[in-house]
Write a structure and sequence with these properties.
heterodimer; A: alpha/beta; Rossmann fold; 8 helices; globular; B: alpha/beta; eleven-stranded mixed β-sheet; 13 helices
């Protein structure tokens, strides 16, 4: 599904990613682990097309298409989803209305009929239960006045509604208490399927105890220095990043 | 916006082309203003002597005044002797079907969600027998008159109800009030007149749409709305379709009078030609709008969505004279390219237990300048009065400006005042968040702007609210980047 080859990426003058190679097949869960400043979020940003992340070398091929020329919105419509590390607030914009726009944008792209309000509401209420959010949630403005846990659960809610093919979770587990972590993990596990791939970006192994990765990669100073199976996460937990 | 402005301009030029013909019988005075011009206007309208006197007094007062310069706007000097002060109503050239109308013009109409029949009316297509503007107007008028409601042009009212005009004209905006009001009082062309009798709730929203015939009333419009004891009326002014006028200066005066227990709701959606993308041309909309809550428990609400005009200069205000009366001002003012707006309100609390609410949303884009100017005055005897003011500015891009000048003058210690203000811009991160969910840049800006204006749109009569939403989208096209 996703093939990253020799990817170098800069933000302004600073080179952040220094030659990344990554191969994600449909249905796989990959974990990207690394310290702060290793380039984890930049990787998420460059795949989703954030303007500040400039590709200076290499390529990102998604389902045989070069992503470089595609706008963030085009990438999203093709099935790429990012659960943001710091979801931004958009006051005044109702979350239900927003999600309905997003869901219908995708349906239009796929040539499907748009969902009417009633059907959409039914679907969103089901998913709300899955992420343990109250039904009063649908009246709120996006991320406006949300607690940290609510923001992350809202991201997973959107994931469940948008049904992406590639879901990138950028530090979705940071700042969560045990219950919230459980809920998030449950949501992610529900979303697992042979057609869906996950890239879980984190620096704690915690979430990976709940959602077992197929492959774990360690990112250090813009390069993947080690790749392995799920046991790599365990070793990191015991030995710390210094070991790498 | 460049692309959109070009389209707008082309459409308007086309509209202009289709809209007017030269008619040898058409009367037009040469430009210039003097007492003779005023006499001519008054005589043409067959006005009574006292009204001519009123006009002439206004003219004399105007001559001694000087144009105000305190507003936060810049414009080339207006030569008042270059303006034509009288033109007989022009006949619009009639087209046979919408196929004859410029497709780009129709495209805007479609984007604005304007119903097909209205599109025909706007573009000068002859309306068919099934939906005939004349017959609709007739049915309309029948129902209104069965309630004793008077809704006609100001000129008609001078003929049919002179006593009402004489009683109320200038009672809210005296001819001495300000430079442009004085000018308007001397040369006003036409406008709306509404009278709602005691205890009557007007059964439909009154729209200028249905009053207007082919007359060109735009330039110095004069409107007077009177709600007698216990009555209610909702009045809609303007439309979302881009309107062009060969006259650049629009100096209207609107007066509202609410008697005991009466309510007047006045809503405006304004999209006058804003000028081209370089700021050339465009309408100057210098308006004096004021309402008086004359007696107890009366209420006046102003709601406006302003997206057009090169310059918007207006402060719809309420004088809260009656005890327990309420004034409200809800506004969205949007400026793009080189537009300028200096708008806001004045709430003057005279009576006891009076309350006022001001919610103003300014959106600036392009190189525009958007100013909110508000005055809340609580006078000595206005015991236990309350005011809530909220003015929010949203900036799109980095070349525009938002300014706020709130004035609060409290002369009674029992007053309760609240004031909030925010300034924000549309964040790149917010746009990216929307993009990442499959929402395009333009839709994202639209979403955010609509979220910003939501509270105000909720105050508009429904049909206007839907149009206003679409109008914001059209006006914002190309503003991001």
């Amino acid at each position: 599904m996703l093939k990253i080859k020799e990817l170098k990426c800069s933000i302004g003058d600073k080179e952040i990613l220094r030659g990344i190679n990554l191969d994600v097949k449909p249905g796989e869960v990959h974990a990207i682990m690394g310290r702060n400043g290793s380039g984890k979020s930049t990787l998420a940003n460059v795949i989703t097309g954030k303007e500040t992340a400039q590709i200076t070398n290499g390529s990102i091929i998604y389902n045989n298409e070069d992503l470089n020329e595609k706008t963030p919105e085009e990438r999203s419509l093709r099935g790429i989803f990012l659960s943001f590390q710091y979801p931004v607030a958009i006051p005044g914009v109702n979350i239900t209305y927003f999600l309905k726009e997003a869901v219908n944008a995708k349906r239009r792209y796929l040539g499907k009929d748009e969902l009417d309000a009633a059907t959409f509401l039914r679907q969103i209420k089901e998913k709300l239960k899955l992420v343990d959010l109250d039904s009063s949630f649908i009246k709120r403005a996006i991320n406006d006045g949300f607690s940290g846990g609510e923001k992350k659960r809202n991201e997973i809610l959107q994931l469940l509604m948008l049904e992406p093919n590639l879901a990138i979770l950028d530090e979705t587990d940071s700042g969560l208490d045990i219950d919230a972590l459980n809920t998030i993990a449950h949501g992610i596990t529900t979303a697992k399927s042979p057609e869906r791939s996950f890239i879980i970006i984190t620096h704690y192994p915690r979430l990976l105890n709940y959602v077992k990765p197929d492959k774990v990669h360690i990112l250090l100073k813009g390069r993947i220095v080690k790749s392995g199976g799920p046991e790599l996460a365990q070793i990191l937990e015991e030995k710390g990043y210094g070991w790498v | 916006m460049e692309q959109s402005q070009n389209i707008l301009e082309k459409r308007i030029e086309q509209d202009y082309q289709y809209g007017f013909i030269t008619d040898i019988e058409q009367e037009k005075l040469p430009p210039g203003l003097n007492a003779e011009v005023i006499r001519y206007i008054s005589q043409k309208k067959n006005e009574p002597e006292w009204l001519l006197e009123w006009r002439l007094n206004s003219y004399n007062v105007w001559q001694k005044m000087s144009e105000p310069t305190w507003a936060n706007i810049k414009y080339p000097t207006i030569d008042f002797q270059e303006i034509i002060y009288y033109a007989a109503p022009k006949k619009k050239k009639e087209l046979k079907s919408l196929d004859e109308v410029d497709p780009q013009l129709l495209e805007t109409y479609n984007k604005l969600g304007i119903p097909l029949e209205e599109q025909k009316m706007l573009s000068g297509v002859a309306v068919d027998a099934v939906f005939d503007s004349v017959s609709v107007t007739t049915t309309f008028k029948k129902e209104l008159s069965s309630h004793g409601i008077i809704f006609c042009s100001f000129s008609e009212a001078v003929q049919s109800h002179p006593e009402l005009i004489r009683k109320y004209l200038g009672s809210v905006v005296p001819h001495t009030d300000n430079f442009f009001a004085a000018l308007n009082s001397a040369v006003f062309s036409d406008g709306s007149f509404v009278y709602i009798p005691k205890g009557v709730r007007c059964p439909m929203e009154l729209s200028t749409y249905f009053r207007i015939n082919a007359a060109n009333t735009g330039q110095f419009e004069r409107t007077l709305i009177i709600a007698d004891e216990g009555s209610q009326v909702s009045y809609l002014e303007g439309c979302t379709a881009p309107m062009r006028d060969e006259n650049q200066l629009h100096a209207a005066v609107v007066e509202l009078v609410a008697h005991r227990d009466a309510q007047i709701k006045y809503s405006t959606v304004q999209n006058w030609y804003p000028g081209d993308e370089n700021g050339r041309g465009g309408i100057y909309n210098f308006v004096t709008k004021r309402g008086i809550c004359l007696e107890e428990n009366s209420k006046i609400s102003w709601t406006q969505v302003e997206t057009g005009s090169a310059i918007t200069w207006k402060y719809p205000s309420v004088i809260l004279k009656g005890n327990g009366s309420t004034g409200e001002f809800y506004s969205v003012a949007m400026t793009n390219n080189y537009q300028q707006a200096d708008t806001g309100t004045k709430m003057i609390h005279l009576g006891k237990n009076t309350s006022s609410t001001i919610i103003s949303k300014g959106i600036s884009a392009g190189k525009s300048q958007n100013t909110y100017r508000g005055e809340v005055k609580i006078m000595k005897n206005a015991e236990y009065s309350r005011n809530y003011s909220q003015c929010d500015s949203l900036l799109i891009g980095s070349e525009c400006g938002a300014h706020t000048f709130p004035f609060i003058d409290v002369r009674n210690p029992t007053a309760h005042m609240e004031h909030e203000a925010t300034t924000s811009n549309i964040d790149e991160d917010q746009i990216f968040y929307c993009n990442q969910r499959g929402i395009s840049e333009e839709n994202a800006v639209s979403l955010i702007v609509n979220g910003f204006c939501k509270d105000i749109f909720a105050k508009l009569p429904m049909e206007f609210a839907v149009e206003a939403n679409k109008l914001m989208e059209v006006s914002l096209e190309g503003s991001v980047g």
